[in-house]
Design a protein that fits this description.
Layout (H helix, E strand, L loop, with lengths): L1 H7 L2 H31 L5 H21 L4 H25 L3 E8 L4 H9 L5 E7 L2 E11 L3 H11 L4 E7 L16 H6 L7
Antiparallel strand pairs: 1-3, 1-4, 2-3
Length: about 200
């Protein structure tokens, strides 16, 4: 009796097809998430390629869903792939670390060591004397690549642990001093698919 039930089980419709839908949806949503990130960062040349692949996968998956409207496993695979794809897309974007960020540091303590450390790491800085709520303060501005944010935050915690700082994305700049490019991470991918900003 159990053997006949196993033989009659539709593995394709209840296991293989939902798995294909899940993986495909994961892929196209990941591409969609990256596409939106690239648009917001100003990298427009790669966006049409991602959009083409994303929509092609989406159409294929939708066609399979429409052929199996009574299969609850396909619906679950669709939703699960969407959720997982969003998460994976953000993870990939975080690893790519595209774009620039501005760090604003405000401190009422001596910050000479912090300023020297930032200069030694070749981070461009601007220092401004300002007046805070409880007295004079120093404001330090630096625009850095996202991949260098953690390093700068560590320098702040090391030299001025009580300093207030904020981090904000910026879309574009003109001129500036930056740390030398590193060859780690996704350098080989960037060489194959240069992400120059479009006009």
């Amino acid at each position: 009796m159990l053997l006949s039930s196993a033989v009659g089980f539709d593995y394709y419709n209840w296991i293989l097809l939902p798995l294909i839908i899940f993986v495909s949806r994961l892929g196209d949503v990941s591409l969609g998430t990256l596409r939106h990130v690239f648009i917001s960062k100003g990298y427009r040349k790669i966006v049409p390629v991602l959009g083409f692949i994303e929509v092609l996968i989406w159409i294929i998956v939708v066609a399979q869903i429409m052929k199996n409207l009574n299969n609850i496993a396909c619906y679950l695979a669709w939703a699960g792939g969407f959720a997982t794809g969003t998460y994976v897309g953000l993870l990939i974007e975080e690893r790519l670390a595209l774009g620039l960020q501005v760090i604003r540091i405000i401190t009422n303590q001596n910050c000479d060591h912090l300023i020297d450390s930032l200069k030694q790491e070749n981070h461009g800085i601007t220092v401004v004397d300002a007046q805070g709520a409880v007295g004079p303060v120093k404001m330090i501005f630096t625009i850095i690549k996202r991949k260098n944010v953690r390093q700068v935050v560590e320098l702040i915690r090391q030299h001025n642990p009580t300093a207030f700082y904020s981090i904000e994305d910026i879309k574009d700049i003109n001129q500036g001093v930056f740390t030398p490019k590193s060859s780690g991470g996704f350098a080989s991918v960037r060489k194959m698919f240069p992400l120059q900003k479009g006009k």
